[in-house]
Design goal:
With about 170 residues, the chain is α+β, with helices and mostly antiparallel strands. It has a single domain, classed as D-tyrosyl-tRNA(Tyr) deacylase (D-tyrosyl-trna(Tyr) Deacylase, Chain: A, 3-Layer(bba) Sandwich), CATH 3.50.80. Helices cover about 20% and strands about 35% of the residues. The strands form 3 sheets. Strands 1, 2, 3, 6, 7 and 8 form a 6-stranded mixed sheet that branches. Strand 4 and strand 5 form a beta hairpin. Helix 1 crosses helix 2. The two termini are about 30 Å apart. About 5% of the residues have low confidence.
């Protein structure tokens, strides 16, 4: 699962010229669901997003996460973050890693529901819609976060290699 977060002064999402979501100071998170993702990856990424210390304190230092504040979160589904380059397709992006729309919608909605339970100050874009996203990036401050099945608490699990592993290669 991929989350591209931006610290914003404000952001909004429009669909068919109507505002469907709007926030003030906080984080705008573009979210891509990948084929292998489960609710476990959603939980890991959401925990990381809410705790990621990129919001400024009174001295201007990035010391606060959303969980420490009443700042807002805007979740926007964006499957194009899962795009990858393949030699086979030349300059056309491949979306083979992206989840199918049904799985993507279910996990995106799950993320929203969990975010509302934990943080409360959450808005969301519309999955599958042609959205117009407007934002004022504060900083600018933009961060790429990912979760994968090989992580616990946002940290990669490293397998221990035996002392002889180098010799066996």
């Amino acid at each position: 699962m991929i989350g591209l977060i931006q610290r914003v002064s404000n952001a909004r999402v429009e669909v068919n010229d109507k505002t469907v979501a709007k926030i003030g100071y906080g984080l705008l998170a573009f979210v891509a669901v990948e084929k292998h993702d489960t609710e476990g990856e959603v939980d890991k990424l959401l925990k990381r997003m809410l705790g990621y210390r990129v919001l400024t304190d009174k001295t201007g230092k990035m010391n606060w996460g959303l969980k420490d504040t009443r700042c807002e979160l805007l979740l926007v589904p964006q499957f194009t973050l899962a795009a990858m380059h393949t030699k086979k397709k030349g300059l056309r992006p491949s979306f083979d890693k992206a989840a199918l729309p049904e799985q993507g919608a279910l996990l995106f909605d799950y993320m929203y529901e969990q975010a509302v339970k934990v943080h409360g100050h959450v808005q969301k874009g519309c999955f599958g819609a042609d959205m117009q996203v407007s934002l004022t990036n504060d900083g600018p401050a933009t961060f790429l976060l990912q979760s994968s099945p090989g992580e616990v608490d946002g940290r990669s699990i490293k397998t221990k290699r035996s002392p002889n592993a180098r010799l066996q290669q």
